[in-house]
Amino acid sequence: MTVLKGMAWSHQRGVGCLRAVSDAYARRTPGVRITWDARSLRDFEDVPIAALAAEYDLIAMDHPYVGQAHAAAALVPLDTVLPAAVLAEQRRDAVGPGYDGYTWAGGQWAAAMDVAAQVSAYRPDLLAGIGVDAPPRSWDGVLDLLASLPPGLRAVLPANPTHLLASLLTLCAQQAGGAAGWLGPRGLDPEVAVPAAERLLALLDLVDPVSLRTDPIGALESMSAGTAVCYAPIVFGYVNYARPDHPGAAVRFADIPSPDGAPAGSLLGGVGLAVSAASTGVAAAAEFVAHVAGADCQRGEYVRAGGQPGSRTAWTDPEADAACGGFFGATLATVDRAYVRPRDPVYPVVHRRGGAAVHELVRQRAEPAAVVRRFNEVCAALYADAGR
């Protein structure tokens, strides 16, 4: 019996889905059993992969950790254990840059079993009550809507340190209009970042102050719980809250707003499934990775178990979309045009410490230029310490 241990994160989209898929896989694959542990969303976003690879065979990871994992030799390159045709099909079937986010230094370090980006979320019943059929597509429209919300209705924007910086980067990518070079070892280009920070601060002035303590799961749980939270203009998409069978009020999703209404520049999220280099069951682990990321599983049992697939076949399947409240069709354009964060070994530390520094200044109501300047100081110091 080959027993594999996996680490995901504590949500139905994470560990819940993987446990269900693994149980079904084990029934069809004699001699293989997979168990899963879970960590919090915060730990998923902040804990280095090398620390997990010493204990687990399978690791659900975020793509910015690819460079760190490669530097630590923590993962098995999937191109050495899976047929080239399998990986080629995964890349062809990818949504947006999901697959490419795990490509680094000539190797493929994880399969994009899940893909996400920052989109918007809303309560259709509450917006309809004030005569709004759909959320705005432009930031000017968003600001107008937020300013006009009547007493008793609130909006939220996940803005704990990690997600505050994520939103700033989305707004920077939109401000840059597809141009490259606005984020590097010295930080953010002020010509791009200061206007983006101005927009972010204007949004925060109009949403519930609890936003500064909130992550995407907290925001969506609040909306679904039937509270007066009617809108989140920037939030990572979570398919679970759109499903008709999800308990609570119906939450719907839409493309990310932008300066011109075109859904581009949103920060890429999602989850890759990787194989630990310390595993004693590499072949079995790799076979499971190929199964989970395959189109048949993705549009079938993966979606049914509450997963958010990384497969275009699943995202464009009418039955899967209907079962998930139209989530896939409503947000596909945003994910297809998503922005991929840096993946070098230093960047995860930059995001953690830079996010904390930005959060502190935003809480102090600092000027946009001061916020950008402080992030750049943190970023430049970390890259300098790393000799870059």
From TrEMBL:
Keywords, ordered alphabetically: Signal, Transport
Keyword Lyase: no
The keyword ATP-binding belongs to this UniProt entry's keyword annotation: no
Biological source species: Murinocardiopsis flavida
Protein name according to UniProt: Carbohydrate ABC transporter substrate-binding protein (CUT1 family)
Family affiliation: Belongs to the bacterial solute-binding protein 1 family.
Lineage top rank: taxon: Bacteria
One protein family per Pfam: SBP_bac_1
